[in-house]
Amino acid sequence: MNLKTKRIRGMQDILPDEMKKWQTIEKVMTEEALIHGFKSIRTPILEHTELFERSVGDSSDVVEKEMYTFVDKGNRSVTLRPEGTAGALRAVLENGLHNSPMPLKLMYESSCYRYEKPQTGRYREFFQFGLEIFGSSSASADAQLIILAHSILERLKIKNVSLEINSIGCKNCRKKYIEAIIDYFNSKINSLCPTCKNRLTKNPLRILDCKNETCSEICKNAPIITDYICSECSEHFKILQKYLKSQNMNFKINPKIVRGLDYYSKTVFEFVCNINENETLAICGGGRYDDLSEILGGPKLCAIGLGFGIERILNIMESQKILFPKEKPPEIYIASIGEAAKEKAFKLCKTLRNAMIFAEMDIIDRNIKSQMKYADKLGAEYVLVIGENEISENKAILKNMKTSNEIEIPINENFLNDFLNISVKNIGF
Ligand code: AMP
Question: Whole-angstrom distance between the N-terminal and C-terminal Cα of the chain?
Answer without folding.
Answer: 48
